[in-house]
Specification:
By secondary structure, the chain is α/β, with parallel strands linked by helices. Helix content is 38%, strand content 21%. The protein has a six-stranded parallel beta sheet with strand order 6-5-4-7-8-9. The longest helix has 18 residues.
């Protein structure tokens, strides 16, 4: 899976970190997840404890979007074969399917081809009736990929707003609160379009805490955010949104445009949501891999958030404490965490949250006593990746570093100051490259403490 693994595995600690990463990502792949969560026995379809009699439906379609949506569709085709009558999914990681139309879009910034694919998806949704069973593949990345600008909002206006939000330091909840109110699909609006069909939503969550209203901006879940909140977020982060965006939000706040549906909306009466994989899926598999390598695993949390560089300093301090005192775990150990960090962009460089995490970890590891501890064999290796294989807008999933990565720490400080960590890590052969992984279950961080 890791394309440059041989070059990265320069020590036992590095090899263990890479083993954990591969195990975690593989555990979250839709082919495994669907096999574990969905079963067919005769004409009875079972999804995480709920059963659906396929004889009660005249049509079965697959709809959805996200980084892993095509892989979900392919896995469902393997299971259901010609029982599937059609459907549309929008993704940036296409695979071959026979019955579901896979349309390509772009992530993390929406594109015209994503808009075209989403329009086709909505056309199928509008044709659903009370005799339709919809299996919805909802995965991380769906917010950008299923782009459906509402009203007079153009794609360019949506893209400009999205780009500014992504570099503003706003968290995913705030970003999606805005996007929901600029979309014809997000924030529960897809549920309105598919009603009165029976909808079974299969969710691969990339959101801290599994807030389903945030995964892919919650196209099939109730939304409590408002137009007024979206306006407040733009102001809070100094986003200079185009006039059509501001006009739509202001009209919504004035009651001229219908709000996103809340939990009591009748559109949700026939919708069931099932989280079939999330960040803990990845962490549990990585933990098992660490144990299999002879290391004691410790899962800190699946909910890390905040600035990537600050989170890195905290993680390294925990690893150093373990090395020095055996608290909270005695080496040899692997410390794991998930979640999603953010980057407030002030420079004009190239990188992503996991690359910034790794670069900041280099500086933390290079602190007082670092060289002496390396000589004593107390290595700490730090890996951080986005499980979809795309960290920021780069061709790297993340990076793998240790105390020996920064013989010239000033270069790391400059890279962080300019948000230009990609070339810094690339020059040190520290980038992890996986290509598209077929899944998206948030970030994975692995600290190997020798």
């Amino acid at each position: 899976m890791i394309e440059n693994r041989d070059r990265l595995a320069s020590s036992a600690a590095h090899d263990v970190a890479l083993e954990c990463i591969e195990a975690g990502i593989e555990a979250g792949h839709p082919r495994r997840v669907i096999r574990d969560a969905v079963a067919l026995k005769g004409e009875s379809l079972r999804v995480t404890g709920e059963s659906y009699d396929l004889r009660e439906y005249g049509e079965l379609v697959v709809l959805g979007g996200g980084n892993a949506a095509a892989h979900v569709a392919a896995a469902l085709e393997d299971l259901l074969s010609d029982r599937i009558d059609g459907g549309v999914v929008v993704t940036d990681d296409p695979v071959e399917t026979e019955r579901v139309d896979v349309r390509e879009g772009d992530h993390p910034v929406p594109s015209e081809r994503g808009v075209a694919g989403t329009r086709d998806l909505l056309e199928v949704a509008d044709g659903a009736d009370d005799g339709t069973l919809v299996l919805a593949a909802i995965t991380g990345g769906g917010s950008a990929l299923m782009a459906a600008p509402a009203g007079t909002v153009s794609l360019s206006a949506l893209r400009s707003t999205t780009e500014q939000l992504l570099t503003s330091g706003a968290d995913i909840h705030e970003i999606n609160a805005v996007r929901k109110h600029l979309s014809a699909l997000k924030g529960g609006r897809l549920a309105r379009r598919t009603a009165p069909a029976t909808v079974v939503s299969l969710i691969l969550s990339d959101v801290v805490g599994n807030d389903l209203s945030v995964v892919a901006s919650g196209p099939l879940t109730p939304d409590e955010s408002t137009f007024e909140e979206a306006i407040s977020i733009l102001g809070r982060y100094g986003v200079d949104a185009p006039d059509p965006v501001v006009a739509r939000l202001e009209r919504g706040a004035a009651g001229e445009i219908r709000e996103t549906p809340e939990s009591n909306d009748p559109a949700f009466a026939t919708v069931s949501n099932h989280v079939i994989a999330d960040g803990m899926t990845v962490l549990e598999a990585a933990s098992q891999a660490a144990a299999g390598c002879g290391y004691e695993p410790l899962v800190l949390t699946s909910r890390v958030r905040g600035e990537a560089r600050e989170a890195a300093t905290t993680h390294v301090s925990i690893a150093e404490e373990a090395r020095a005192t055996g608290t909270p775990i005695s080496p040899p150990a692997v410390i794991l965490s998930g979640g999603e960090t953010t980057v407030t962009v002030r420079g004009d460089g190239h990188g992503g949250p996991n690359q910034e995490f790794a670069t900041s970890a280099v500086l933390a590891l290079e602190g007082p006593g670092g060289e002496e501890q390396v000589e004593d064999g107390g290595t700490i290796a730090v890996a951080a990746v986005d499980t979809d294989g795309i960290d920021g807008v780069t061709d790297a999933a993340g990076a793998l570093v240790d105390e020996t990565t920064a013989p010239a720490p000033d270069a790391a400080r400059t890279a962080l100051a300019e948000n230009d960590v990609y070339p810094y890590l690339d020059a040190r052969d520290a980038l992890i490259r996986t290509g598209s992984t077929g899944t998206n279950l948030n970030d994975l961080r692995v600290l190997v403490v020798e």
